[in-house]
Specification:
The structure holds two protein chains of two kinds. Chain A is mainly α. Chain A is built from two helices and two strands; from the N terminus they run H-H-E-E. Classes of the chains: A mainly alpha, B alpha+beta. Chains A and B meet through helix 1, helix 2, strand 1 and strand 2 of A and helix 5, strand 14 and strand 15 of B.
Chain lengths: 81, 230
């Protein structure tokens, strides 16, 4: 059994290019097409309240919303210093 | 990020650093933050010097001779503790090797220093199953990875480094109550921004440091969509 999240940091390839890093991940393994993927849907870490609910949505969008793949403003609740 | 009262409290109360941490993308900024904060902490610094030796791996041009000890001491590869390890009572440290996984001493375990002996340091485990328990840490011989330097450096030192701050990559998979993020240098690879933003349990306990002239306070988010499962 494997556990993980492809939205998180991938295994480190020293001095690796984007192509090197992408090709070193589990999906490129010969094992991958024998693996059945099960998905978790609820963020268990963040406490449940009004501002956090929007924060959790923002966190999810960071990975799955292509218009956020660039320089973006921080989530409004985050302190800056 | 750490008010001076917290640095003060940490001397006697190990819980001060249990749930808060600074995260930054690069090792060099992390080192700088740690050096600043060990200086700012109250108490006397104890400096532990390592014993370094080297073994030549590539018998090629230029690497025939053993480098001087001073040269070996100046190496700071990520796989080794510092050659001059500066510690104070109460300082948070990160364990760099699995010493005794069944007793909670794993690569990546955070501890708070309680005693600085000549041959051993004593520290309390921060968080997890063994939270608050004290452990003795001996000096051990550590080898650098073979791809970092032209030689394999063997360093006899306590297998720890300071961790007021650590890299985002080391923080992956952990939760903290309070996180300060140093983004004066941006993230540089897939997933780092998501990981660093998602370590807290409450958005109100997250703070970010940016360079002042950053265009309208924007931060870089790097995603390689080709690895995401849809």
């Amino acid at each position: 059994m494997f556990g993980g999240d492809f939205a998180q940091i991938l295994p480190v390839v020293k001095h690796g290019t984007r192509a090197d890093i992408v090709s070193a991940n589990l999906q490129k393994s010969f094992l991958w097409n024998q693996i059945r993927v099960l998905t978790l849907h609820r963020n268990m870490r963040v406490q449940d309240n009004e501002s956090n609910r929007r924060f959790v949505e923002w966190l999810h969008n960071l990975s799955y919303e292509p218009r956020l793949y660039r320089k973006i403003p921080l989530f409004p609740g985050i302190k800056q210093f | 990020m750490y008010p001076s009262q917290l640095l003060q409290r940490a001397v006697t109360d190990y819980t001060a650093f249990r749930t808060s941490l600074i995260l930054s993308p690069r090792n060099d900024t992390v080192t700088k933050i740690n050096e600043t904060l060990i200086g700012a902490m109250p108490g006397d610094v104890q400096t532990y010097l390592s014993i370094d030796t080297a073994e030549v791996v590539n018998e090629g041009e230029g690497y025939g001779e053993m480098p001087a000890v001073e040269v070996l001491n100046s190496f700071h590869p990520a796989s080794l503790p510092p050659s001059r390890l500066r510690l104070k009572i109460g300082a948070p440290v990160l364990l760099l090797r699995n010493l005794a996984p069944q007793e909670g001493l794993c690569n990546g375990t955070r501890l708070s220093v309680t005693r600085l002996g000549r041959r051993c340091i004593q520290a309390r485990i921060l968080g997890g199953l063994f939270d608050g328990q004290e452990r003795l840490i001996p000096r051990i011989k550590l080898n650098s990875s073979d791809d970092e330097l032209p030689y394999i450096v063997s360093r006899v030192q306590f297998p720890v480094r300071l961790c007021f701050a650590m890299t985002i990559n080391k923080g992956q998979g952990q939760s903290f109550d309070t996180v300060g993020v140093d983004l004066r240098t941006s993230v540089f690879t897939h997933g780092q921004f998501y990981v660093v933003m998602s370590r807290v349990t409450d958005v109100n306990r997250l703070a970010v440091l940016l360079v002042e002239d950053e265009m309208s306070n924007r931060v870089r988010n790097i995603v390689y969509p080709e690895v995401l499962l849809r």
